Structure formats: structure tokens, C-alpha cells
Amino acid sequence: MTKAWMMLAAVALVAPTVAQAQAPSAAVLAAVADKARPEGDSSRDGARKPAELVAFAGVKAGQKVGELLPGGGYFSRILSKVVGEKGTVFLWMPAGMPADRIARYDPLLKAYTNLKLVQGEQLVAPEPLDLVWTTQNYHDLHHTGRSPDATNAAAFAALKPGGIYIVSDHAARAGSGTADTDNLHRIDPELVKAEVIKAGFVLDGESKALANAGDDHTKKVFELHDATDQFFLRFRKPAK
């Protein structure tokens, strides 16, 4: 048995948990409805279902959140509003990113003052986090040759006991592992579960809000955009 399949077999020992949808709070609904959000973001809400997903993650006012690879800031803006003035969202970008790419975050950081950009080999927050979040980017840890194991270990170390780790991405064919991370920008969700559980996390829930049975997993995500079949996984750092 290969190492990859041994990892997948370990996941099979974890009871599957498909949680019921949770009604978004008034704070979450207000964050999504915020008129300050770019039209390019809000126009995607029907497909990306941010209110439902942020509610499923359990994001609350006052929390300290780490967002890995925040992309264009779609969820950064929403998370910022939900955690509020007493909360903080640390946006992690790897060390060595081009200066012009990092500079793109300046307007976002000025508009949302509780967003803090942190750069380093891995996420290191100045205080224990309640939640770590990454969406549509986990496959890039394989695609760009970074270490998913190191990233998951950093997320585990940054979280408080009982803290939540959210991982969502475009689903690849069952059993494909990392075969499609480069060409299709997809990843097998069972491999993701195995890698995150190996870091010490427990699978705590799975939302099917972004599942799409009409996606046959053969197209690049850029052809389908937000209409891909996506997984949304909630992991928990054990309390002890």
C-alpha cells in the first residue's frame, strides 16, 4: 500500500460528518450586504454563498482569524466586518512574493483597518487564533511546490485549542490525489482530509453548499469559474 493510500485509509477511520446548514446571523448578513464591497465581489454571491459558509464556519465578533492566501480579498472583506472592531483578520502571504503583488493589498488594508498583512514562510500570528480560513487556494500549495504539511502544521500551531480550520477548494476526480493541481487547479478532497488530519486536526463538519453534481471534474476551473464542484471542510484542533 502506498503512503498516499495509507493516508486515505486513515481518513476512512474518521466518521463522516455532513453538518446541517446554519442560519446566518444578522452580523453575517450585514457583512455580505455591505455596500462598500466591490460589485465584482457581490455579483458572485449567488454562486459562492458567503453568508451560509461564514455561518457554517462559526465566525463571530471579536475573533482573531488567519486567512491563508487571500486572493482578491473576497472573503477578507466579509470576515473583517463579521469580527468587527474588536477582532482581527491576519492575511498571510508567503515570503518572497513580488512587491507589486503585495502592494495590491494596500487599498484593502486602508479600507478595513482590522485586516493585517503578515508575510513569512508560514503563518505566524502575534496572538492565538480562533479560526484559520482558506478558500480556492489549497491546491496551490501543491501547484507551486510549497509544503502543505508545513502550512497545515503552522495553522495548527497558530490556533487556540478547540480552534477551527476551514479548507475549501475545487474538487478533482475521486482518487486523483494531486494529479490535477497543476493542469486543472483542482485537488481530491479525500487527500486534503488526509493531509489536514495528519497535522493533528479532527474533521468536524462538511458543507455541501458548493457541491455541483453537474461538474464532471475534467475542465479547468477557469472555464467554469464559481460553477465548479467545490468542497467546504471544517476541521477542529482538539481542545486537549
Structure description:
The N terminus is likely disordered. This protein is α/β, with parallel strands linked by helices and 240 residues long. A seven-stranded mixed sheet has the order 3-2-1-4-5-7-6. It is 36% helix and 21% strand. Helix 2 packs antiparallel against helix 5. It is globular, with a radius of gyration of 17 Å.
Question: What attributes does this structure have?
Answer:
240 residues; Rossmann fold; globular; disordered N terminus
* Overall body shape: globular
Q: CATH superfamily, called what?
A: Vaccinia Virus protein VP39
The secondary-structure class comes to alpha/beta
Number of helices: 12
Radius of gyration (CA) equals 17 Å
Give the end-to-end Cα distance, rounded to a whole number of Å. Answer: 32 Å
Keywords: Methyltransferase, Signal, Transferase
GO molecular function, one term: methyltransferase activity
GO biological process, one term: methylation
InterPro entries: S-AdoMet-dep_MeTrfase_Alr7345, SAM-dependent_MTases_sf
Task: Give me the secondary-structure topology.
Layout: H1 3-12, H2 26-33, H3 39-42, H4 45-48, H5 50-57, E1 64-68, H6 74-83, E2 88-94, H7 99-103, H8 106-111, E3 115-120, E4 129-135, H9 138-143, H10 148-158, E5 159-170, H11 189-198, E6 202-207, H12 221-224, E7 230-236
Parallel strand pairs: 1-2, 1-4, 2-3, 4-5
Antiparallel strand pairs: 5-7, 6-7
Brief overview:
This protein is of the alpha/beta class and 240 residues long.
